[in-house]
Amino acid sequence: MSPAPQSAPVRVACVQVTAGRDLYPNLERATTHIRAAHAAGARMIFLPENVSMMEGTSQAARAKAMPEEDHVALGTFRALARELDIWLHTGTLAVSVGNGMIANRTYMLDPEGAIRARYDKIHMFDVTLAGGERYCESATFQPGAQAVVVNTPFLPVGLSVCYDVRFPHLFRALAQAGAGLLTVPAAFTQTTGKAHWHVLLRARAIENGAYVVAPAQTGTHEDGRRTFGHSLIISPWGEILADAGPDEGFIVADIDPARVAEVRGQIASLKDDRPFTVSVV
Q1: Is 49 designated active site?
Q2: Domain named CN hydrolase: which ranges (predicted)?
Q3: Phi, psi of 171 (to 5 degrees)
Q4: 23-39 vs 72-84: helix axis angle to the nearest 10?
Q5: Which domains, from first to last, does the chain contain?
Q6: Which of 14, 49, 55, 137 is catalytic?
Q7: Taking the model in full, what pTM does it have?
Q8: d(Cα 127, Cα 130) in Å, to the nearest integer?
């Protein structure tokens, strides 16, 4: 399915930060980059996973999580979207959902500051890497169960978070539902980022004929975790339009909604999907 093309390209931005444990310095840093990206012409701005807090323990993350209706970061970003007249993707925030659990939740805000969509990260990063590097998100977060596409004036946007990128069927479902832009806010580890970040994101773009916008955390955080950076904006043909490298800041690129329809017309894999069964013999 191809979204209806618009007449003009739109400038989008990814913000890249090294978030710490404390909410207010993180919000100040993110706000500075949002304002700079807006000054550079961005009308849609995307923030990384855990933009308001990078905590190293489940207990600390739970203690600092807030319910949606009282979330300081969400309120800050809603006001900023309204002030700057932009579409603002909040990265992810730690949102209390009861029973001692929190959601790793992302929001898409419109230029009036209204919440147009919510998405809770579905796939939990429970892994042990070579050398003993270990993560267990399911100890802290309650996984989501609903994929989300949000309509914008530019392209329908399919929402995902970080580890979701390793589950291509999710992105296929988003594209089949009309998404022409797929966003992947992340805090990818240095280890897995070096090996897989670029190739996974380019694959998701190519497979689905969609733009991929992937804002990321970068650097060494207060808890010692190291994230890969390299926020990316990728075309539907798999071309890297912008790469933030390892430093904090932002990147911009102009995306053309008509390019989605063009690529999907050349390689109509979404249309050519066929049902099948699997036999194990």
Answers
A1: yes
A2: 10-257
A3: -70, -35
A4: 20
A5: 10-272 (3.60.110.10)
A6: 49
A7: 0.94
A8: 10
